[in-house]
Amino acid sequence: xxxxxxxxxxxxxxxxxxxxxxxxxxxxxxxxxxxxxxxxxxxxxxxxxxxxxxxxxxxxxxxxxxxxxxxxxxxxxxxxxxxxxxxxxxxxxxxxxxxxxxxxxxxxxxxxxxxxxxxxxxxxxxxxxxxxxxxxxxxxxxxxxxxxxxxxxxxxxxxxxxxxxxxxxxxxxxxxxxxxxxxxxxxxxxxxxxxxxxxxxxxxxxxxxxxxxxxxxxxxxxxxxxxxxxxxxxxxxxxxxxxxxxxxxxxxxxxxxxxxxxxxxxxxxxxxxxxxxxxxxxxxxxxxxxxxxxxxxxxxxxxxxxxxxxxxxxxxxxxxxxxxxxxxxxxxxxxxxxxxxxxxxxxxxxxxxxx
Length: 355
Description:
alpha/beta, Alkaline Phosphatase, subunit A, 12 helices
């Protein structure tokens, strides 16, 4: 009987996954910025790390199809992949997923900038400051959220918002844009401005989704580049497209594509700036993949993608990384996410930062 039942199950047709569709009418596209001629093997003076939270290769290609086969991200000439398991799980969360490239250590899921034993680890941003570079952080969610927090704070639990917020005034970061004003007391905000920090927290919690917030991310990117480039020694800037993850958790294909396109516009702002500043390294990657997205069809000429989410959580696949500019050549290949930290350290222009 069991054998007969197994044969009957094997004989059943395999039905395709149910697909959702997104078109250019749902997520208006843009013309990519022309890729400047950049010296891939030169030493960089400026380093820009862009993290699409939850952005797998499938998210990029879904946006590429809707934008009719054009993206700033897919122009970047050096391509690789990053493996993302954490110290505690095969599938990372954002806290451990950001700690790895930020600090070069495997963290337990939920821990901010700590190694697997709970010891504080120094981030690449703070190391860049010790080398004399100016630093900046941009996020479209709460600035105390897991990914940006890993670059300036330490915590046993990513939900310790007050603890994380209290560490931002002491961080020495020159430029901050994000949400999360509700986590800061007015005296903390005043203290940061008194110390010369250019900080704007644009919402109480997370910012609105891409379809509602306008050009906040591209504008913040332009402002950061102008502000930080005043330091002749250079700068380190982390820009997060935070809400790709939010939309993918909801299995909302249209909003996921909108978020990737918004992030891609910020990449375009960086490429435009790099035309006059070729001594810049740009790295675009992700902390993990969210939603288990699969592309099932569509039309590039029509700007349409048909796709299916297999989970409302994260998946365990490796995430893409794209690089351009000075020092980009070394990022090609397959890396553990902790190894990205070492590559970024080698790219820092001051020898003291590499110790």
